[in-house]
TrEMBL record, chain B:
<keyword id="KW-0067">ATP-binding</keyword>
<dbReference type="Pfam" id="PF00005">
    <property type="entry name" value="ABC_tran"/>
</dbReference>
<dbReference type="InterPro" id="IPR027417">
    <property type="entry name" value="P-loop_NTPase"/>
</dbReference>
<protein>
    <submittedName>
        <fullName>Branched-chain amino acid transport system ATP-binding protein</fullName>
    </submittedName>
</protein>
<dbReference type="GO" id="GO:0005886">
    <property type="term" value="C:plasma membrane"/>
</dbReference>
UniProtKB/TrEMBL annotation, chain C:
<protein>
    <submittedName>
        <fullName>Branched-chain amino acid transport system permease protein</fullName>
    </submittedName>
</protein>
<dbReference type="Pfam" id="PF02653">
    <property type="entry name" value="BPD_transp_2"/>
</dbReference>
<comment type="similarity">
    <text>Belongs to the binding-protein-dependent transport system permease family. LivHM subfamily.</text>
</comment>
<feature type="transmembrane region" description="Helical">
    <location>
        <begin position="202"/>
        <end position="222"/>
    </location>
</feature>
<keyword id="KW-1003">Cell membrane</keyword>
TrEMBL record, chain D:
<keyword id="KW-0029">Amino-acid transport</keyword>
<keyword id="KW-0813">Transport</keyword>
<dbReference type="InterPro" id="IPR052156">
    <property type="entry name" value="BCAA_Transport_ATP-bd_LivF"/>
</dbReference>
<keyword id="KW-0547">Nucleotide-binding</keyword>
<dbReference type="GO" id="GO:0016887">
    <property type="term" value="F:ATP hydrolysis activity"/>
</dbReference>
TrEMBL record, chain E:
<keyword id="KW-1133">Transmembrane helix</keyword>
<keyword id="KW-0472">Membrane</keyword>
<dbReference type="Pfam" id="PF02653">
    <property type="entry name" value="BPD_transp_2"/>
</dbReference>
<feature type="transmembrane region" description="Helical">
    <location>
        <begin position="151"/>
        <end position="170"/>
    </location>
</feature>
<feature type="transmembrane region" description="Helical">
    <location>
        <begin position="251"/>
        <end position="271"/>
    </location>
</feature>
Amino acid sequence: QNEQFIPILSYRTGPYAVNGAPYANGVVDYYNLINERDGGINGVKILTEECETGYATDKGVECYERLKSKGPTGAAFINPLSTGITFALTEKTATDKIPIITMGYGRADSKNGAVFAYNFPLLGTYWSAADLAIQQVAKELGGFDKLKGRKISLLYHDSPYGKEPIPMLQVLAQKYGFEFTPIPVTHPGVEQKSQWLAIRQNRPDYVLVWGWGVMNSTAIKEAAAVAYPRDKMIGVWWSGAEPDVTPAGDQATGYKALMLQHGAGKFPVHADIEKHIYAKGKGSTEPVKIGEVLYNRGMVNAMLGVEAIRKAQEKFGKKPLTGEQVRWGLENLVLTDTRIKELGFEGMLKPVSISCSDHEGARYGRVQQWDGKAWKVISDWSTADESLIEPLVTDVSAKYAAEKKIKPRDCAKET
Amino acid sequence: MRAPNANEILLQVEGVALAFGGVRALRDVSFNVKKGEIRAIIGPNGAGKTSMLNVVNGFYHPNHGAITFKGSTRSKMQPFEAARGGIARTFQNVALFKGMSALDNIMAGRTLKVRRGLLWQALRYGPALAEEVEHRRKVEEIIDFLEIETIRKVPVGRLPYGLQKRVELGRALAMEPDLLLLDEPMAGMNVEEKEDMSRFIVDVNNHYGTTIALIEHDMAVVMDLSDRVAVLDHGVKIADGTPDEVKKSQAVIDAYLGVAH
Amino acid sequence: MIALGQFLEVLIGGLMSGVLYSLVALGFVLIFKASGVFNYAQGAMVLLAGLALVRALDLLVANGLPLWVAVILAIGFAAVIMAATAWLIERFVIGPLVNQDGLTLFMSTIGVTFVIESAAEMIFGSDVYPLRLFPTDAWFLFEGLFPGGILVNKLDVWGALIAGVLVAGLAVFFQRTKTGRALRAVADDHLAAHSVGIPISWIWFVVWLVAGLVALVAATVWGTKLGVQFSITFLALKALPVLIIGGLTSIPGAIVGGLIVGAGEKLAEVYLGPSIGGGIEYWFAYVLALAVLLLRPQGLFGERIIERV
Amino acid sequence: MSIAKVVVAATTEATALILSVNNIEVVYDHVILVLKGVSLEVPRGGIVALLGANGAGKTTTLKAVSNLLHAERGEVTKGSILFNGVEVKSLSPNDVVRRGCIQVMEGRRAFPHLTVEENILTGAFTRTDGKLAIAQDLERVYAYFPRLKERRSSTAGYTSGGEQQMCVIGRALMSRPKMILLDEPSMGLAPQIVEEIFEIVKDLNAKEGVSFLLAEQNTNMALRYASHGYILENGRVVMDGEAHALAANEDVKEFYLGVAGEKRKSYRDVKHYKRRKRWLA
Amino acid sequence: MLYREAGQFKATYAEDMAIFPIRQDRIALAVLLGIAFIGVPLLASFRIWPFSTDYLLWAILLPFLILALAAIGTNILVGYCGQISLGSGAFMAIGAYSAYKLATGIHIPLAWLGFAIAIPPLPVLASILLGGFMAAGAGILFGIPSLRIKGLYLAVATLAAQFFFDWAFLRLPWFTNYAPSGSVNAPELDFFGMVVRTPVERYLLCLTFATVMAVLAKNLVRGNLGRQWMAIRDMDIAAELIGIRPLYAKLTAFAVSSFVIGVAGALWAFVYLGSWEPLAFSIDRSLELLFMVIIGGLGSIMGSFIGAAFILIVPIMLNVIPTKLGLPLSTQAITHLQFIIFGSLICYLLIKEPHGFARLISIGKEKLRLWPFPY
Ligand SMILES: Nc1ncnc2c1ncn2[C@@H]1O[C@H](COP(=O)(O)OP(=O)(O)OP(=O)(O)O)[C@@H](O)[C@H]1O
Ligand SMILES: Nc1ncnc2c1ncn2[C@@H]1O[C@H](COP(=O)(O)OP(=O)(O)OP(=O)(O)O)[C@@H](O)[C@H]1O
Ligand SMILES: CC(C)C[C@H](N)C(=O)O
Ligand SMILES: [Mg+2]
Ligand SMILES: [Mg+2]
């Protein structure tokens, strides 16, 4: 039984399926690729099982409980694909010693690996995202000093996900002197008329969109209906995929969104996928959808997990590993440009370096804009300002540690 | 034994009028029920008989008039107040609690007599249990009396119509009322069953001294059982008196009986 | 002046979007009125109709048919799908449940909801499919009077027109025809309706079909608004307060309820929301409904609940 | 229903009998056996009375004939019912009505939210002979029951018990049936109206050849108007025969007509406490 | 032949009034309780199949017990008192959040009055029970409309409670102790110094709650109050005319039901989820509870357990079976199929037996009694 078990929590039905399905497809295809092309990770086959959460927290918990101890060594890590589920699982995963990978989402304070030993909000937390978004606004306005007195609204999914950036934005508002207004949208977000009428009356300079599922496209349509300029809207990286803009048609033209490093498009690894998976008829989606934003994100996410296992195998041997061992792999994962190129992800990803004190590993971002047909990258790489984020992380995670009676690890002593 | 006390009036209805939109169900009706008697109310369909009972036990609130029961006068009261005052009734369209067994239906009639509260009942221990058993004993007496032992545990929805009427009577009796209002208790019964029912009514009246007001379309029953009969037609009282008097009244024959009985 | 303009804008926007809810509520009313079934699946039926329509349309257009031909054919196709659904539901779910109480029927429609939603997505796909049958931009009225004008969305106006026509037609059908009378009889007492020879299965098929067609109409409007996608099913929950304010059995009530809910919740959200945290419109609509029911337990235009002994 | 079947069934015997119930068993809820082999026949143009105590199974028998049992979780598990030579089981309830057999259900099942007039008109649902004929029949019903005319626009749910009963009977008459299954028509009606109803029965029977199956507790009346009678006890037919023969039977007299010896005894004087002997069932 | 009450005579009313008057039933129940209280924990602590992993305990038994408890609460209101409620989820939430607030301490500064309400953190057990009482209070409040509003109108009106509390717990930061994400964590489950941590301990805790409350609920529903509720359900006018006060009967039903649901909510949050957000108690939960009581049997305490088991386990089975069979279907298709099957199954059951499993069982028993004769 030379198999490494990896559970896949996904949602292919319900209101969030439009975004959940392409992501899950990317994940599944990448794991298959490793098995088909390489015969597994150093010969250890990847065994997966999907569990439908419907983006609902309680279902997510149920899935986790069901899958955590499957396979010869239990789950290597868990990737709940929802900030809400992440919150619900944070304590459990620490007890069960299973890493929880939340790439580009999850709780921002869990960047602090000293307190959150098992959480890995890789490649960017929502606090990083908030900072990146404000940086973009400043750039468009012509400098941070121009932010003063401006109005910036946050249209957010009323859930842990949408609320996560608020503390950071408040910090930023204080620092730069803009007026910050959070505007909640109730799940699932089909009804936003009053929010947009309010926006029309309040006329903010920018609207940040923290939406998911149908909420994104509805926001764009309602913006068009009240004639709010789409190029003054900046979505988080979960509000910047194809299903978010296509339903709005022409109305979406000009809409911007952050990128979690990569965008849409095909890269060397896609050729492998097409060759080893789709040519054999084992693909999990229609071939035209390969290379969509969320599909790519799923692949990146799966790749990071696989590389972490590979890293851990260096220390623990080429055999199925426990969650605890994989955690070591994650915490010591370093992906250089060369390695990224080897993996076929060149152009999708900047270098990553995870450590005990930094479970985020990288905080690069770019901005893309929808031109009516495709996403166009319109900005250069930038990095979230750690000097602003770090104090908040320290502060909030310390509170968590106190509440949960967790004794933070001394990262200096970790290897 | 039975001794109608001619002087004591249990229920006095005074000038009651009731209208629903354009329909004047009752127009200035007055009558009384004496303690211990069996009082019948008859009249053609839609005359206002059921409405009268509804007024008496508070389900309808009359537009005019007053009701004096056991000496206290009211024009308006809530149904459960009437029940607490000692008025029980059965219904024209059987109004049993369909999902419950016959036993539970009758036990429900004892609600007003239950003393122990929610917490005691939840524990169902000691005094609460003792009380429950005591009520059960009383109810079993009624069940025996009405000869429905075999159907105690049957959900009443499954019972044939006639037995349902009997259970309904049992439920009313469980309240130990002073005044029992019966709305067509013998509709849909054959002679034998009517005999049984008559016997129950007479016995209740005799043994417990319960006063009974009765609506019935079977003239034989009415004439045999009742002490006095009031006749309504189109919401107006057209006759009142002993069965024999009423039987002979031309107004009653025209409006109701058709042929002299 | 600005304040007044803004108020009017919110009010009009609210009234209009309320009417869009009415489109969904109408389907509920139809079925309830005719069979006493509280059809939770109405939202799912809108999804199904919308998916059938948009997928057929895309396919036909892709095959080079002129748009108007494609639209007609696609609507025909969707109508056939709704007819098949109506038949299946009658045959396999509601028919066998004749004479059961309202709660059981209600729950069975939730089961139906699961089936329709999933089957629709399985057959027609689960992406977001844009549909553009109506204009979605806005007019800005009285720009001279109010700065920025008063925004009125064209789609909303279309929706309101369609709803008005539907309501008039259906109201006549129910009150004036023999079938309408039979429908109401069935809702009152299944068994008695059987006993006088009303063919309940046929009646129910017709009603579910009409409700399906109403769902199709709703789907054209809502699909244009949101894109055809799963979340359309959530409309069912938004239509419920509309439904009970108007009265479960009243067709015009659905419109009036929609107007009240739409205006009420939007005004509340815009003027009350910010001070107590925002996002209040979901419950506000229901609290509004509760308040109306306390005054009139059968809704504004619903049939009286008969209590007699 | 295939035509062939109808033709085959239409034997000479079937033409003489409008309804024949052959040894049926009915079970409710899969476990409650209510009818244990009931057979009865209604000749074309006959009036047949179905008598029996509470719970004997009269209503169940009628519902089996009109095929309404299904909706109450009941089932005919054995035997057959032929209406006009056609097996009823294969028909839907509305087919039964369309073929001319309508039931007046016990318990005043008027449609509460419809007005009295609307209620009556629903009875004409299966008819296709035009508005005029229906309007005429409506007037005929009003002529039978003037009280209904007075209350025609009232919501049926709010009318009195007797008014509802008249409404339900009137409703059934509107379908112009060949056969009417009357379940306790006299229940809750004033004596005058009861007479009236039996006169209507006689009238329809004589003038229009309508057949009747009559479940009735008012045995006296029923046997006066019927040509035939069946007595049901505990789900079995315990006795049947010509109406006048039944009326003369001593047991029937005692149990159903309340006549002991020759004199009717007063309800006040009934003394027997426990059930007396019954027919051997 | 095995299932007969022949030869079992009851000499007293008390005996006849026992929960299970038939001996065979009593034996079955004793065995079941034995397994639940002793067998399962034993197997689990020695990790013997099927308890070799925590899965069965954590993912099935724990939610089963808690939801069964909530279903009992729902059944009291819907099944016994006939007041259809689509707001059970909200009352679970009230239980959960009240318990959370009580367990973490409450501080309400009333500046204009010059003092503050301050309650120190309460022990977990007290918090859970008080959470139930808070839910009961809210239940009474939202039950008041039921005096006027009936049937499906009431059902929709109860959604006002559902959506209001969904909103309140989401938007009013006080309830979540100003947690920025709105997601809160349960306190440590400390029962008089005994800390409940492992799945087995959690299981036993919930089992105890479920058993005790089921017995109390059973006592209530077979006592006078239960008869009042059922009377209101079956025919409220007649109930009033025999002296049952609708106000009292309905509000006690709302209170008791909400209490039970509230306690279940607190357990769900504290013992099962550990960390939660309002969406855990959404309308879907309310509908799920309603399904449980209807499939299980309206007006049956035992039915609540069966219904909970069914609604909980069937989707899991449906999820597991295709993977076991290795069906060559896309995951998307499988998920959709599961919903289709689940929906159809519900319809099928409702058609087969609209009164739920409880009725099915009683018919089964009846048949057993008559066996070998069909009727
Ligand atoms: N839906 C049902 N479910 C279970 N049992 C039923 C049902 N309907 C009737 N029964 C039973 O069938 C038996 C016959 O009932 P039925 O109503 O046919 O009697 P009936 O002769 O019409 O009596 P009545 O004169 O009281 O109307 C009764 O014992 C009754 O308990
Ligand atoms: N709640 C109500 N709303 C409207 N009309 C009513 C109401 N209650 C009674 N009525 C009307 O009042 C009149 C008297 O009705 P009631 O029920 O008292 O008659 P009844 O004497 O009992 O007749 P029956 O012998 O037929 O039962 C009827 O015409 C009835 O339609
Ligand atoms: C893919 C998802 C994790 C994004 C989601 N909206 C969340 O953060 O919860
Ligand atoms: Mg009456
Ligand atoms: Mg009968």
